[in-house]
Design brief:
241 residues; alpha/beta; 10 helices; three-stranded parallel sheet; 9 strands; 44% helix; 17% strand; six-stranded parallel sheet
Length: 241
């Protein structure tokens, strides 16, 4: 059976606008496992409005979620990171350990406002890179200015940034424009990894199988494996900070 890594999810209970409680977390884990997901990176928001819990709280929560996952399958892995909304203070907070990177590495999942300019996003990525962080841009298809010109994505990748897309965009859940854009990215081999960006069990559940099947049919098994598993796995193997 194909196995997937979910690069972006909100499964920790009661820390942001994701899972509300342990019961919903457990249901989300069960859905994910049935979908073929064998590893999830929990990426709770660090955002002025949607959540900014302390690292201690998040580590305590992920310890509980790991126990729930082990009840489903002892090999079902849960890692911890953060979806970081970029502000000028983010770099210093990362340096001080007030925001968590992915699994204690130098990899950071960073989001922006949908209306932020490409110039702002590019400069923000550079700022983080100057401090030694490897940037993964969360759901890149959401940023209208970046989406307006494919060369912007190409330039970001050339600087070393990695692009994450949401499975919902692959299957057309977020409209024709987002779907067309993510396929344009994949046609140019610009996508690093895929996340469910799951927040609940209904409208934004951790489903990945259908998207993976579509990608394998269009681009082949090797490519599907790369963006649904291998690239994300490489993040988790890197040396810690």
């Amino acid at each position: 059976m194909n196995q997937f890594i979910d690069l972006h999810s909100h499964i920790l209970p009661g820390v942001d606008d994701g899972a509300e409680n342990l019961e919903e977390t457990m249901e989300m884990l069960q859905i994910a496992y049935k979908e073929g997901i064998r590893c999830m990176i929990a990426t709770p928001h660090f955002h002025p409005c949607r959540g900014h819990r302390s690292p201690v709280t998040l580590k305590n929560k992920v310890a509980i979620v790991r126990k729930l996952a082990a009840k489903i399958d002892p090999k079902f892995r849960i890692y911890l990171g953060t979806e970081i909304y970029f502000t000028q203070e983010v770099t210093e907070k990362l340096q001080r350990g007030e925001i968590l990177s992915i699994n204690g590495t130098r990899n950071v999942l960073v989001e922006f406002s949908p209306n932020d300019s490409y110039e702002h996003i590019y400069k923000s990525v550079q700022q983080l890179q100057m401090y030694g962080y490897e940037v993964i841009i969360a759901h890149v298809e959401r940023y209208a200015d970046v989406r307006s010109n494919l060369s912007y994505a190409e330039e970001l990748v050339k600087t070393g940034a990695r692009l994450q897309i949401n499975v919902g965009s692959i299957v057309g859940k977020y409209g024709k424009e987002a779907k067309k854009y993510v396929y344009s990215l994949m046609n140019q081999n610009l996508v690093f990894g895929v996340g469910t960006d799951a927040h609940n069990t209904s409208s934004r559940s951790p489903k990945m199988k259908k998207a993976a099947e579509l990608i394998e049919k269009k681009y082949g098994e090797e490519y599907r494996r790369r963006i649904f598993f291998d690239n994300a796995a490489s993040l988790l193997r890197k040396k810690r900070r």
